[in-house]
Write a structure and sequence with these properties.
92 residues, alpha+beta, 4-stranded mixed β-sheet, 4 strands, 46% helix
């Protein structure tokens, strides 16, 4: 699957990692819903790090459609509450 981290680029991540990515997204959703800034910041950082650790960055000239999109690592809780609503930050 292709994961885009806004402001950073795209990463190819094996489909077998999807369950863990979904768990991290759920932690983000709960933090946003609960208004918990420290939990949100930590969960977003963990998700971004997970993609970095388990993905392979695509070259700048290799642009393909993204399966998952993660907000920029510096997204605030307030921005997330405004921009990302529903089932989670990562669209299905």
């Amino acid at each position: 699957m292709i994961v885009r981290i806004f402001t950073e680029g795209q990463y190819r991540v094996d489909d077998s990692e999807r369950a863990r990515i979904d768990e991290l997204d759920e932690a983000l959703r709960k933090a946003v819903d609960g208004g918990d800034e420290p939990a949100f910041t930590g969960a977003l950082a963990e998700l971004v790090a997970y993609v970095h650790d388990h993905g392979k960055a695509l070259g700048e000239d290799e642009l393909v459609g993204s399966d998952l999109m993660i907000p920029p690592p510096d997204t605030s809780l307030e921005e997330a509450q405004t921009e990302f609503t529903g089932e989670g930050l990562i669209p299905d």
